[in-house]
């Protein structure tokens, strides 16, 4: 099982605003303020430390331990890990930035187009896997005159605030 599962709680079902044209703190033309909001929801989290026994609980083979990124013993040992939710937020943020390549051009120059392409293919596939694995079966309806879903539908999910603060590093905005 996931080690952090005991730290999360589910929120009451709530309406998600699916309107095509809307504003929120994580959406819009790129700006330092929007980038800070993405850090606040989890992109600024520190990795967590796992040990070999944790891998057994996660059904990972002992053979994999040698290929994983290890923390030097003088720093306490163990393995570096990230909670999947934060990895997927990183993937989504990578695509957000790719859609505004002209704003985030330095990242493309520093890493290169081919490396970015490989990374984005990975992110697309991870998001696909996650959506298929945790498929929300809430029906959504559509308007006749617009190819967009009904503005609000009720969904249930994790209370994001219950697990983000415990893993977030200081971003200078709190």
Task: Give your account of this protein's structure.
This protein is mainly α. It has one domain. The protein has 6 helices and 4 strands, in the order βαβαβαααβα. The strands form 2 sheets. A two-stranded antiparallel ribbon has the order 1-4. α1 runs antiparallel to α3. It starts with 13 loop residues before the first strand and ends in an 11-residue tail after the last helix. Belongs to the ustYa family.
Layout of strands and helices, then pairs:
Blueprint: E1 14-17, H1 32-43, E2 48-50, H2 52-57, E3 79-81, H3 84-98, H4 105-111, H5 113-133, E4 152-155, H6 160-163
Antiparallel strand pairs: 1-4, 2-3
Q: Can you give keywords for this protein?
A:
single chain, 174 residues, mainly alpha, two-stranded antiparallel sheet, two-stranded antiparallel ribbon, globular, disordered C terminus, Cyclochlorotine biosynthesis protein O
Q: Can you summarize this structure?
A:
With 174 residues, the protein is mainly α.
Structural class: mainly alpha
- Number of strand segments: 4
Average residue pLDDT: 74
User: Helical amount among residues, as a percent range?
Assistant: 25-40%
**What oligomeric assembly is this protein in?**
single chain
């Amino acid at each position: 099982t996931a080690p952090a599962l005991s730290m999360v709680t589910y929120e009451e079902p709530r309406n998600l605003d699916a309107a095509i044209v809307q504003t929120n703190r994580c959406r819009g033309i790129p700006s330092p303020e929007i980038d800070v909001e993405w850090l606040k929801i989890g992109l600024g989290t520190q990795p967590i430390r796992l040990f070999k026994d944790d891998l057994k609980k996660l059904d990972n083979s002992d053979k994999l331990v040698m290929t994983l990124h290890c923390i030097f013993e003088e720093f306490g040992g163990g393995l570096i890990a990230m909670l999947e939710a934060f990895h997927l937020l990183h993937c989504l943020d990578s695509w957000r930035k790719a859609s505004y390549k002209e704003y985030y051009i330095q990242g493309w120059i520093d890493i290169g187009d081919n490396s970015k392409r490989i990374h984005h293919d990975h992110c697309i596939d991870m998001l696909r896997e996650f959506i298929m694995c945790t498929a929300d079966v809430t029906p959504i309806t559509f308007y006749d005159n617009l190819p967009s879903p009904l503005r609000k539908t009720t969904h249930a999910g994790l209370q994001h605030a219950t697990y983000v603060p415990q893993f977030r590093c200081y971003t200078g905005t709190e």
